[in-house]
Specification:
The chain has helices at residues 28-44, 47-55, 68-81, 99-107, 124-133, and strands spanning 3-8, 60-64, 89-90, 115-120, 144-149, 163-169. The chain is globular, with a radius of gyration of 15 Å. α1 (28-44) packs across α3. It has a single domain, classed as Phosphoglycerate mutase-like (Rossmann fold). By secondary structure, it is an alpha/beta fold. Helix content is 35%, strand content 19%. It comes from Sphingobacterium corticis. Keywords: Hydrolase.
């Protein structure tokens, strides 16, 4: 069974004219929220899933937008998972992306991968969950949606209404 976790970055600095949006960092609350969601996710995994994540093997993939706040969120969650941060795949295509552009990144995931974590931004992430599951979800900062793919689908075949929403971690 393939699983997809779609996580919005934690609370970031307010936008202003002194820094590009791309360069905004997590604030303290955003860092703490990311760690808490990471712990909640970790506690939801069974022993086999925990072992696969810790091994950072080819069955698990963490993919993040390259924007500061998203990669910082991914790194904080990876630390909770004991997953090496240098194994986080960074994808510029996720930044300010339309949901179908994020889906294209997921569709490139190799068939041997069983679990994928995506770290990025709204509105694209919420729209992606809605598109894949036909369930209305509005991911707040540091929220994560857990989706299960229909057994007959790989990540390459993931498309509209081919996943089931299991849980939203808030």
């Amino acid at each position: 069974m393939r699983q997809l976790y779609i996580m919005r970055h934690g609370k970031a600095e307010d936008p202003d004219f002194t820094k590009r949006d791309f360069d905004r960092n997590l604030v303290n609350r955003g860092q703490e929220d990311a760690k808490q969601i990471g712990k909640a996710l970790w506690n939801s995994f069974d022993d086999r899933e925990k072992a696969a994540i810790r091994e950072a093997n080819s069955r698990v993939k963490l993919i993040s937008s390259t924007a500061n706040r998203a990669i910082q969120t991914a790194e904080l969650v990876a630390k909770v998972f004991e997953f090496p941060s240098d194994r986080i795949q960074r994808e510029i295509e996720i930044y300010e992306a339309y949901h179908l552009d994020i889906l294209k990144v997921i569709n490139r995931v190799p068939d041997e991968v069983e679990t994928v974590f995506i770290f990025g931004h709204n509105p694209g992430l919420s729209m992606l969950v809605n598109y894949l599951t036909d369930q209305h979800v509005d991911l707040k900062t540091a929220n994560a949606a857990h989706l299960i793919l229909d057994e007959k689908f790989t990540f390459a075949e993931l498309s509209e209404q081919t996943a089931t929403l299991q849980h939203v971690f808030e």
